[in-house]
Amino acid sequence: MSAQLQRGGLILKNAVGKTIMLIRLPVHSADSLGKLLHPSQATLYKLMRCPSGPDLKLVRASSDEAIVLRVEKVHVSLQSFGKAIGVMGTDCVYWLKSPDGQTVLGHVRPKFAMKRNTLIVKFMSKQKDIQLRAAMLGTALLLLINEVYPQLKIILADTQQQQNID
Predict the structure, then answer these.
(1) In terms of residue numbers, what domain contains 149?
(2) Which letter does DSSP use for residue 144 in this model?
């Protein structure tokens, strides 16, 4: 898969170049980190901040109450071994959990590579739902834009404003 920058977001394509998902920054919502769209431009999910605490939730676009997964930020003190051996390039890991918050479905973490940072998205082996995995991947890319590379968010927001002016 590959992701290409476009005005206001990213286009995610498969190996043969077919668009499989669009990732956009929010236009008017302060509590949203962005949205995941179908290639036909229909909004499927929104990544929202939880009102109580630093956690996030991925909700269906049709209802802010229909939680698809929860995103919990775990600070490196709980992941100190990974930080100590140099495989993690950040102070946190994002756990992707079931809507009830009880089951870990996967996690997202940056990792140092030889010449650049890499984002690792790990799916738990029991998690086989393709649509949920796609939602988890889109969530990881929104976290990349908003948390790992915030300068990318500024650039994409500027291009989005230019598009609205045009």
Answers:
(1) 2-165
(2) I
Average pLDDT, the chain: 81
User: At a CB cut-off of 8 Å and minimum separation 6, what does 16 contact?
Assistant: none
Number of domains in the chain: 1
Q: Which residues, in sequence order, are CB contacts of 54 under 8 Å at separation 6+?
A: 73
Tens digits of residue pLDDT in 105-147? 999 887 655 555 677 888 988 878 889 999 999 999 998 888 8
Report yes or no: 45 and 37 within 8 Å, Cβ to Cβ. no
* Dihedral Cα 56, 80, 121, 40, nearest 10 deg: 20
Q: What is the CATH number of the domain that holds 119?
A: 2.40.160
Task: Give the pLDDT of residue 77.
Answer: 60
Evaluate whether 160 touches 154 at the Cβ level (below 8 Å).
Answer: no
pLDDT of res. 86: 46
Written as six digits, the tokens of 159 are 């291009």
